[in-house]
Structure formats: C-alpha cells, structure tokens
C-alpha cells in the first residue's frame, strides 16, 4: 500500500490525496477499482467500506487507536484506489483559497478525470487491467457521471486509454425525485408509519411526497417526518445516535453526525465511534508523518466536512448517465442494503425499472453458505440489481462478508 498526492489544478494548487492498495491475489491482472465515499466531502481513509484496515473496537484509553486487518477488504479480489475527493475532503487540499470556491459536481468530475489520467500514466503496468469506478451514497451519484466522461474520452481516442469495463454503486444518490419519493412507502412497509397515515399520505399528496402543494399533505408529511426521526435512517435497526430529521425532505446523506469541531466521544454501540477513532488517529503527528501528509496543507482532520459549499445542481440527476453507460454495453452492479431509509431499495429499483430493459435473470435469492443473504435481478445490457439482507445505507460496513462475496462474483463474471 502507498499513499500520495496528484495535482489536479495548477492554478489553485489543488491536489488530491489517495491510497493505493494492491490486490492480494493477482495484481497484474485483477481489476483496478477507484472507490469513493459519499458526503460529499467524506474521506475514504483506509478503515471504511472497502479498505484493508479497521479500528479495533475498544474503549478509548488516550493512546493512538489500534488498527487491525480487515478480513473483508476488497483488495482480496481487486487493486483499490481510495480517493479523497472533491478538494477539501480528508487530506486533499488547494494552496489557493479559490480552489475551495465553486466546488460542485462539475469540478468533482473534472478533477477525478485528471487524477485518473495522471495516475494511469504514472502506473502503466495497470493500464490493461479491467477498470471499474464505484462508491456509496453521493459517490454513487458521481460514479456513473465520471464513468460516462471516461467513456467519451475513450471514444475520442484520448491517451492513456483507460480500460473501463463498468461501475458499481451502493444505495446510490441520483439527485432525482426517485431518491426521496419512496421513503414514505418504505416507511409504511417496515412498520414505521401506520396504514391510516400512509392512506392519508396517498390521498392528500397523490403519490408525491417531496414538495407538498397543499396544507393537508404538508401536515401528513410533518407527522411522518416526526415518526421517522425516532429511528436511525441509515440503518433502521441500529441505535440512533443523534441523527436528526429534516422536515418534508428526509435526510439525504449518511454523514450528518459529525460537526466541524472535534467530535465528542460517542458510545461503543454507535457507528459514529469509528469516526471518533479516525479523528484521533488522523490528527496525530506520527500518523501524518507516516502518511506523508504535506505540512501546512491540512488543519484539524474532519472526516466529513460540512462547512465547504458544494453545488450538486450542476448535474441534477445521474440517471441519464446510468442509461448512457448501460446502453453502450458497460457493466453495472447496483446494490442496496434493505434496511436503509435514506436511499431505500424501492427508490433504486424504480429508476432501474424505468429503463424498460428486458429481464435476463429474474428475481431470486442469492446465497452464502447455503443461506439467502439478499435478492437479485439481472437485466439486459449487463445491469444487475442486488439487495443485501440486513444492510444499511453503507452495507459494505455492516454486511462486509456479503458485500465482498457479491463484488468478487460480479467482478469474476460469475452469477451471484
């Protein structure tokens, strides 16, 4: 594993920080996956989602948090690039403050494209490896957008020629109304709201639960929002540790718990405890020296920054990019933890069905050790939709064994 910076904007001095983890299997031929985390402005580090390390879950004793090997790292089956993007995420930075202005989907995409072109020039041995781009949540919106731009560069004959084969996204944001509109039906389906309340929502909101047009619809959605605020939206069975609820427009990102100041120590049972350990570990001078973090480029480490303005409306919806890629033969794996209410699987299933692709492998269970761990369906043009039983918004973290098996089979062109 190594970690470095790559310059993506000479004018502002913007550089993106990344980790590269070589495949434990066959690095010369195994796929290369660029993996990004949601937010935006949430750092990948190496402890979250597909990374090779994890923190030892133990009460903090004042020393540097201990690390352990992640037995379900995706480096078991692929080479992984873990990228801090956009600028301002993790240890990625700009020397000129102008580099932090006007950050949005467009600059995010452009910088990642520049990063990848430079990375493959610097690492020619991987240029022929199958390449995939992926991420969870908001990175699930950006992945097909960036992949679509890469495909255009391929068609234009741009060098280096990235061997793009497809993309994979988990509980992906699209930016479209699909994201929000299925939260109410999902909440009813899992028993968060009653039959009567759901019927009132359908009657007064007429199937549109995002922008209420009359007082009765708004009142019903207020009641639903209050009920949903009682649970952890990212995983409805997990402990709720301070997550709030936005009125009418339900919480749209998983990383709402960290403030811009040093986080207070949560309890061990909270998922935020790992973010707390990450903050301590990444703020330590010895850690930064070992990582090669450039002095003066990063202040206090905040895993998920909220103070930098971001403009998502530059690309209102990623759905057209999904359709563009899939229609041209690129492979897509779209997976959903079925206990997520931020981007419920109903939302994702709906926009995939809107493409009207024919079914080539109908809805069925997929298994590990003889047990059903979710359900899957495959459509024409190589798009596979998968649910992960018991998974949340970031199912790779709370169902790591299942997600590694899913990725490994899909990357190997094996049926789930």
TrEMBL record:
The keyword Magnesium does not apply. GO terms for molecular function: acyltransferase activity, transferring groups other than amino-acyl groups; serine-type carboxypeptidase activity. Keywords: Carboxypeptidase, Disulfide bond, Glycoprotein, Hydrolase, Protease, Zymogen. Its EC number is 3.4.16.6. InterPro entries: AB_hydrolase_fold (IPR029058), Peptidase_S10 (IPR001563). It catalyses: Preferential release of a C-terminal arginine or lysine residue. Pfam families: Peptidase_S10. It comes from the Eukaryota. It is an enzyme of class 3 (hydrolase). Coiled coil: none annotated. The keyword Glycoprotein applies. GO terms for biological process: proteolysis; secondary metabolic process. Belongs to the peptidase S10 family. PANTHER family: OS06G0520000 PROTEIN, SERINE PROTEASE FAMILY S10 SERINE CARBOXYPEPTIDASE. Carboxypeptidase II is a dimer, where each monomer is composed of two chains linked by a disulfide bond. This is carboxypeptidase D.
